[in-house]
């Protein structure tokens, strides 16, 4: 249980530090796509949760709790992924420094990442 909690906490840390690509690559390697989809639902959940964090739609704690539940459920069905969850729990985002969390929109949708150009909205004061 502590491993899952640590992995869920690190998922949030990766999101906050702008390492969304790292998380998506991890999720594509670990989770299997649902029927009729080329991409695992968890990859879409990473993108959605990053956007929710940026827009104050979810708190860090809410995202951590959500990912703890996702990992617990998936691990119960696929115990072979335990080493991957342990590796995530013991890892840390590689980028140092403060991350500015915000959103940038255009006709294509929400961008979540580290380097943004143009106007970025921020709904909460720091």
Structural description of this entry:
- The protein is mainly α and 126 residues long.
- The chain is built from five helices and two strands.
- The chain has a two-stranded antiparallel sheet with strand order 1-2.
- A hairpin with a 2-residue loop joins strand 1 and strand 2.
- The longest helix has 18 residues, at 60-77.
- The termini are far apart.
Architecture blueprint of SSEs:
Layout: H1 2-16, H2 20-30, H3 41-54, H4 60-77, H5 82-89, E1 104-106, E2 109-111
Antiparallel strand pairs: 1-2
Helix pairs in contact: 1-4, 1-5, 2-3
Could you say which structural class the secondary elements and strand pairing correspond to? mainly alpha
Give the proportion of residues in helices. Answer: 40-55%
Low-confidence stretches are none
Quaternary structure: single chain
Largest sheet: 2 strands, antiparallel
Shape: globular
How far is the first residue's CA from the last residue's CA? Answer: 33 Å
| SS element count, helices | 5
| Nearest-integer average pLDDT | 80
Beta-strand percentage? Answer: under 5%
Strands ordered across the widest β-sheet: 1-2
The total strand number stands at: 2
Order of helices and strands: HHHHHEE
Alpha carbon gyration radius: 15 Å
Short description, anyone?
By secondary structure, the chain is mainly α. 52% of the residues lie in helices and 5% in strands. The model has no long low-confidence stretch (mean pLDDT 80).
State the main characteristics.
single chain, 126 residues, mainly alpha, two-stranded antiparallel ribbon, 5% strand
